[in-house]
Amino acid sequence: MRTEAVPGALLEISGLKTHFFTEDGVVKAVDGVDLTVYQNRTICILGESGCGKSIMARSILRIVDAPGRITDGRILYRAADGREIDLATARQGSAQLRQIRGQDIAMIFQEPMTSLGPIQKIGKQIVETILLHRKVSKAEAKEEAIEMLDRVGIPDPRQRFEAYPFELSGGMRQRAMIAMALSCQPRLLIADEPTTALDVTTQAQILDLIAELKEEFAMAVMLITHDLGVVAEVAEDVAVMYMGRVVEEGDVYAIFENPQHPYTRALMASVPRIGVTKSGRLPAIKGMVPHPLARPSGCPFRTRCDSAMPGVCDTSVPDLVPAGDSRTACFLFSDATGNG
Ligand code: SF4
Question: Which domains does the chain show, CATH number per domain?
């Protein structure tokens, strides 16, 4: 777990564990995540489904459903006034947490109806969000909501202000959700697979829109995805997750051009590249992700890793250490005591 402050960090997550206590056993969905989100940068959290990336994001906002709960670790948020707040231990229901959730940190989802109420007009929902977090009049909130609908590319925003979510197309609903999330000008936008359900053209438009708004509002973006194409398009930083842990983090060039962790290397090798003409099939990562209730001892990737070292990789869990241009959790770069 890191102890010293990281320059430019907006959010520092260290040793975060979020476990689900089910009748069949404890599912360690997030099991020791170390991660830094920097101001005004876009970080993509990359991983297969079930690797814990969404639960990690929900842990930040403290919206993990029972029987899940944070059992250990720190989520250090640096507020605009310089205060450091540990979101992992902030009291649920406190005014401080309510203010951070929605105003400082906003989240959008794959399915817009997760955020938008089905029987309330779009405009009214955005106005209520603004009034909840900001000291403005109703009339001012309405004008801001219309401006924001316009800003996210919704045609006839004054008319659409009066529309119900079901009257909009999927792409427009996604834009309305982004408008609502950004109406309080958050410092961090968390986007959980925001374009997965959309066609490729709308997907590209929404990603461009998020990138544009990130610059305009000078905010950080955490984009959760399983799609390497999305990462290549928008990421500045990348964290690769596997079985509830970050196995490699670095800037996008380091991760794509010089991946270090065997899992990241296998992921990158499975991507077709323009101009590279290899005959035959693209390599696939061998084996399957283990069942969450049957985690292997030691390194979680060892059952699929060609470089696994018996007696080393099965004895303890590797920590993130500098390797190449990134930070990597693998005993090829550190010994079992964690020394690089
Ligand atoms: Fe493979 Fe061992 Fe590195 Fe895990 S620690 S990725 S098993 S070499």
Answer: 9-246 (3.40.50.300), 258-273+283-337 (no CATH)
